[in-house]
Amino acid sequence: MKIKKHVFVRLADTSVILGQRLAEMCSNGPTLEEDIALSNISLDLFGRADELYKIVAKLEGDKFTPDDYVFRRNEREYYNIKLVEQPNEDFAWVIARQFLHDVYAREVFTQLSSSKNADLAGISQKVLKEIKYSYVHSKDWMNRLGLGTEESNTRLQKALDHLMKYVDELFAFDELDKTYLADCEKLKSIWFKEVDEVLLESNLKRNPFPPLSMRDYRDGFHSEHMGHLLSIMQYLPRAYPDAKW
Amino acid sequence: MVIQKEFGHLWEILSEIPDPEIPVINLVELGVIRKIEESIEPEKITVTVTPTYTGCPAKKLFNDLILEKLAEHGFHKVEIISQNFPVWTTDWLSEETKAKLLKEGISPPTIGDKIIPCPRCKSTDTKMVSAFGSTPCQSLYTCNNCQEPFNYFKCY
Lengths: 245, 156
Fold this sequence. Notes:
- The structure holds two protein chains of two kinds.
- By secondary structure, chain A is mainly alpha-helical.
- Chain A has a single domain (7-205, 213-239), classed as Up-down Bundle (Ferritin).
- In chain A, 63% of the residues lie in helices and 0% in strands.
- By secondary structure, chain B is α/β, with parallel strands linked by helices.
- Helix content of chain B is 22%, strand content 22%.
- Chain B has a four-stranded mixed beta sheet. In chain B, strands 1-2-3 form a three-stranded mixed beta sheet.
- Chains A and B meet through helix 2 and helix 5 of A and loops of B.
């Protein structure tokens, strides 16, 4: 299933894939409250993706539904940032991934909220209200794990060292990004400033890593984890096409 | 935002639909029904709905409940328009609605999430247990005075 490259698709794919990762945590959270929190945030992400896919569907002449986009595209037809497809190795990975994403998504939707496209501006304003809760939650856990025990700090640092490799591509903006985002440089500088501040106060570091040869998510490239994620997420509609509840 | 009051009887009919998750208030009180209009097509009405949260599981249920209720009263040609803008806000809950929530044991939204009274003893000496609660729109709190655990309707 071909989909036109579009900023909405990037945003929607990023939301749905992160939503799926968090949904995997449902009944696997460290405490009941945490389980509920992660499931709630997952729900927000699915809702966000649904609204964004509706805009995509409208642009493409209503040929497909949001479900079609989610369940009938292959790996290379997905345009999510690689950060969000990284697995739930442990709770520290979940939190680090969420925090890095939340700061990024908040800044992206802040810029989109003044977009000339009324649909996009509307949904962005809505998303900003919801993201606030996710951000407070993930930042709080960054502090708690970073300043917790030696074990929690070590694990969170390990998660960060892995996830940071997938951050560069967020800011390798192309022409398409630039037509929607008002100020790409500002987005990047705010992100690094804020992430560095939180890492510093949490006794964590942004460690350097050797240069990687990884192709950009904007061209539909992924890490090795994406195929596994899709194989679970898409299993039912693939095995039983057009199955209904 | 002022809710238009034409189609008074239709507003009344839709006020009979309880919120699926918080049945003590109805969909009109919740502020999700924004507009009821006559369509260009004869005898057809359009209802404009603004969802509370993008991921609200009741989003689709709202539409089904509205269609069902209107059909019960003989309105079969109904179109539901989903409108995200202006964004739904807890400011649309009236004081009366908030009082109903409090009576039901849900502390109503307050500006900036600042003063959160306990629905049981009305003490404002309360603390958050978890920002995420039983529904996407609520947080878990507990009262420091009477130890009552309760839900707080988040301010959006």
